[in-house]
Write a structure and sequence with these properties.
The chain has 371 residues and is α/β, with parallel strands linked by helices. The protein has helices spanning 10-14, 17-25, 40-46, 61-70, 85-102, 131-140, 147-155, 210-216, 275-285, 323-333, 347-361, and strands spanning 2-8, 30-36, 53-54, 75-80, 110-114, 122-125, 143-144, 164-167, 175-178, 181-186, 191-196, 199-204, 206-208, 226-228, 251-255, 269-273, 292-296, 314-318, 340-341, 365-369. It has 3 domains: 2-153, Rossmann fold; 159-228, no CATH class; 251-369, no CATH class.
Length: 371
């Protein structure tokens, strides 16, 4: 039997259960595993599992499922470790239905293993009633939850007639991230986002952040990726791996898209704009020994527990609201509107040029050097 395994998120990896489940499923047939989502990449790297879990492509979970469908495997597993049984089951419901919309023949069984090792952990057979589900539920001490139970308990309350989206399993005082941009903070355990004309305009159960909404721009509320709280909670020792650096000094520009940073892993230095983007990007790029020059304005919403930075990185903290202004001037002057530049020889030259740009804007700033 050929088994495809989609691993989602850092928690299932940091807990050790991703590897345990992959090894367990090898008893049932030939196994291949790939990541679904983005934030699990650093966890795969830190755990030295690149040869076990394929992280070569940036794919949403439903597309990872579809790859195994197109490979005509016999069985597909989705491994996840949500903040709660509610968030995990709702996540699985949305992923499975997105996947089902992408395939013509939905005959391959899809089984979700959610929060293994927890009292509220579960196994969900999304489109099947196989004997392996009962067998694994006993081996892993997981309750079997049916798709109907997930729908009745967590989904049916959503009103498709309104342009709103209920976010399940949140807690007060958590950051709300939409497509990687922090747009607000919760003040309740119930959260609903409301959109009009493809823009988020209101929130129930939290407070919106106007600057974050400006960065986010137009969205399809039904398909955006929404996360709350810390993106990675586990205390980890980051693993630094060698990468091929270009012979010429390559500078790349990253503007408010921290989760896309992996495509810049061949850079000599990455310029990041925004507090959260700088925090996430520097943490990821630490694994590849790449310094960053961050443009921040002190409006930090902590989204990872620890943010690592490579030695010789530089953080410019400018006046509130000026990070975007500085970022646009950097993109125009240093990059000529592009994403990469070879115009400088070292990080000190780039730092000096950015300081000149900031002085010309005439805003206050301070520089933090990472030693």
């Amino acid at each position: 039997m050929r088994i495809g395994i989609v691993v989602h998120g850092p928690n299932i990896i940091d807990s050790g259960y991703a590897l345990k489940l992959i090894d367990l499923l090898k008893d049932y047939g030939e196994v291949k595993a790939r990541l679904g989502g983005t934030m699990g990449r650093t966890a795969v790297i830190d755990a030295s599992l690149e040869d076990v879990i394929d992280i070569s492509k940036k794919l949403v979970p439903s597309d990872s499922l579809k790859i195994f469908h197109d490979d005509d495997v016999d069985l597909i597993f989705l491994l996840n470790y949500g903040k709660s049984n509610v968030t995990g089951q709702v996540f699985g419901y949305k992923v499975y239905n997105h996947y089902a919309d992408k395939v013509d023949d939905n005959s391959i069984p899809v089984i979700q293993i959610e929060r293994p090792g927890e009292d509220d952990g579960s196994i969900i057979p999304w489109n099947n009633d196989l004997a392996i589900v009962k067998e694994l539920s006993q081996k892993l001490n997981l309750d079997i939850v049916t798709p109907r139970e997930v729908y009745d308990n967590h989904i049916r309350q959503d009103n498709p007639g309104l342009n709103q989206r209920i976010v399940h399993g949140v807690s007060p005082d958590e950051n709300i991230m939409v497509n990687g941009v922090v747009i607000g903070k919760t003040d309740s355990d119930k959260l609903t986002l409301i959109a009009k004309d493809n823009h988020i305009v209101d929130i129930i159960g939290g407070e919106l952040k106007a600057h974050g909404l400006e960065k986010l721009g137009e969205v399809d509320l039904d398909s955006v990726i929404i996360k709350t709280g810390l993106l990675r909670k586990a205390k980890v020792t980051p693993r630094v791996i060698s990468t091929d650096k270009p012979n010429d000094f390559k500078i790349t520009f990253l503007d408010h898209a921290g989760e896309d940073v992996y495509r810049f892993r061949d850079s000599s230095v990455v310029i990041t704009v925004g507090d959260d983007t700088t925090l996430i990007s520097s943490d990821i790029l630490y694994r590849f020994d790449i310094p960053i020059i961050g443009i921040t304005d002190g409006d930090l919403d902590k989204v990872v527990e620890d943010g690592f930075k490579v030695k010789d990185s530089v953080i410019f903290e400018v006046e509130s609201g000026f990070d975007d202004v500085v970022g646009q001037d950097i993109k125009r002057i240093i990059f000529d509107g592009k994403r990469e530049s070879y115009a400088y020889q070292n990080i000190d030259e780039v730092k000096d040029k950015i300081e000149e740009i900031i002085k010309n804007i005439n805003c206050k700033y301070k520089i933090n050097l990472i030693n």
